[in-house]
Hints:
The complex is a heterodimer. By secondary structure, chain A is α+β, with helices and mostly antiparallel strands.
Amino acid sequence: MSDETDSVKAVRPAATGPSRRVLMVLGAGAAAGLAAPGTLFAQGARPSTPPDRPRGQIVAALSQEPTAFNPLMPGIEVDQAVWWQLFSTLWYIDAEGNFVPDLAREVPTVANGGLSADGLTWKIKLRSGVTWHDGTAFTAEDVKYSLELINNPNFRVRNRVGHSLVKDITVVSPDEIHWRMETPYSPYLSILSLTFLVPKHVMEKAADPNTSPMNNAPVGTGPFRWGSRTPGDNILLTANTAYHGKGPYVERLIFKYISDLTVLYTQFRTGQVDYTGIQGILPNFVREAKTLRDRTVVVSSTSSVEHIAPNLDFGPLADKTVREALYMAINKKAIIDALNYGLPTPTETFVPQQGWSYQPGLPAHVFDPAKANALLDAAGWARGSDGVRAKGGVRLEFTNSTTSGNAVREQTQQLLMQDWRGIGAAMRIQNMPPAVMWGEFWQQSKFNSALVSVNFMLGADPDVTPRFGSGAIPAKGGRGFNTYQYQNPEADSLLALGARQFDLAERKASYGKLQTIIRNDLAILPLFQGVIAEGMKANLRGFRPNANTSTNCWNIREWYWA
Amino acid sequence: MARYVVNRLGQAVLLLFIVSMLGFAILHLAPGGPLSQFALSSQMTQEDLDRITRQLGLDRPLPVQYADWLWRMLRGDWGVSYRDGEPVLKIIGAHLGATFELMATATLIAVVLGCWIGILGAIRRYSIFDQLATVGAMVALSIPTFWFGLIAIYVFSVNLGWLPSGNRHTVGEEGSLLDMLHHLIAPALVLALVETAMWGRFMRSSMLDVINQDYIRTARAKGLPEWRILSQHALRNALLPMITVAGLQFPTLLGGALVTETVFTWPGMGRLFLDSIGYRDYPVVMGILMFSATMVLIGSLIADMLYAVVDPRIRVG
């Protein structure tokens, strides 16, 4: 970013490949997450250290309201912002992409004996001296209960991917637990980094775990305790002084719900809120926000990829040549520079560019309408009298859908329509409210094409079986989210192989090949990797963007006032 | 009177039944659903969504779902929110106070200011004040509430820094009455603006009708002082049609509150309704719908009964 000031630091995707540390085998304790250079998002010039006891409060504004407080039940990103404060995982992935033990004493590896060589036996040693917010000791029984609850058919769990493979859970001692996996499944390490544990002694009091009182007055082992909730307005958390890790350094944390992003920015500008979370600052306000006194704006990459999702079963879009021509005819630079204020970085793949599995060197997109026209001519797509091409009675005509009211996406559609009209492709806009767009219309592949941003990673793992596996097409009875209806036997083999490999170098090779195949097939038409601009008061320290988590609120425990 | 009230209550129950049936059908037949919000989550698959759909009973035929909802409703169980698992009545209760505070303040401002403008406009018909009030009312009625809200925030919060740009309290410092009033000024004035214009127009028209009546002329002929004619003869009669206006205010105010609460981050029923529709939180949307419909019917019934009480020429029953 050319207009950075001292107080504005941008976290750009690392253009280089994975570091040596990251390339170490998983068994040696290396990360499976996304690596981002920590120095890039250092805070302002004033040096300071955290206080010796919690002091002050932080008002963190969120544009969606957190409503799901049981971390095992269905929730969205904004709920996870609260879960990070109240609960803990066995381990998490830090901003540099390393697995860091939390409730576990160490991350299980083949080297430390936590994982058997065949990947089937897991032995987890737990941290001792950890207590739940009500003072009860955390033990292996809580881990066993959480894993069993996830697999309880009557429990409205968010997801069982990976967990359903866990068998024969044995509590060896209060601080050690073992289990066996039905099949080797390496992404489980990543899944567990986002699986928050719940207290057995509280949950089991309720006859029905779906209606446990804990769902609305959560008890965890996290850095903050539940305080109160004013529905539609705010959630108050207080410092857990018995927290087992670093921090917390503030007495109170208030999540303030402000649904309108313009209003949210205004309250940030007028100083009513200290931090703008989740969707952050709208791109059109970023330039102005950087000029505000006593405010810091941090622009960081997310794991989401903005792309055009073709329905590969729909008429002209089933033809790979058409997809190539359409991709070639997109003026990506104009979309990034004119509509997104130059903030995002173009990409060619579904893996974030900081990820250990990111495959560099994929064919780069070139904006070349003349070549796109030539491709279509050669493939027999002839222009009709109205300028729209057709082949074998199929017109090169389709709709594009996205969430109505998203101004930037609606403008992107206008540019796409214009670009594609130039090569004889007729695109019509068919936008819908979110509840409609992402309902059956999306889930059952009833769209022609869509403009969408998706985080393809499973936790921080590149296992995209639910997104690109041929058995994951809901419209064909599949169990995943392959709404593109992408099918490629070679991709299926690589997905299966990658999921049972535990050596990081081998996995990187498998997922590299997979990315090449998906790029060549143009299963998606990737535009750019997502970015988020977040604002905070200049004397708020400790903020560290982490693309391995779904929210940059992950480490509020380490935030403090200078 | 008792028979009239019973009749009206009977009609109200029938109306509520029709509202519930139509509301339920429209809500559930509209595309999308409560699980759409999870569709882009990398942590949930179609299998998970199908399972949760079954667990919530959303895979049952619509008439079965409606019958189940109605039966529970009749027994006082308004259901629980799909979003946070809280009982619907508790959720409505938690938001009602904020909306009531905003609506009551706005209504008070609108009634006092609107009536005063209307009366003065009628007495000094075609004066500069009357003409300015007419133009002002037209502007207030023509421009959307959210625009006024944004202008108020821009001028009084961002530029002048006199008023907070939203919220019901300073975040984290709830409990101070002064702080609450400070936060209430802007949203209440914005919500009251359109209402004031409406009250002013109705009041002016009603007052003009009355001051041209024979009995007012007679009072003047008797030599009564003008203030007494206006306050005791004209005003009392001119206020009668205002009862109808007041009875119809609830839905109008609620509509205005939807927008005002969003612009000013006011945690009331309006914002709850919009959020719940957005997330397709069926139990909460239905709860708010039934609650609002009941309030409108009660408001209308009270207005009719008040008419009978304050105007001896009218008898009901």
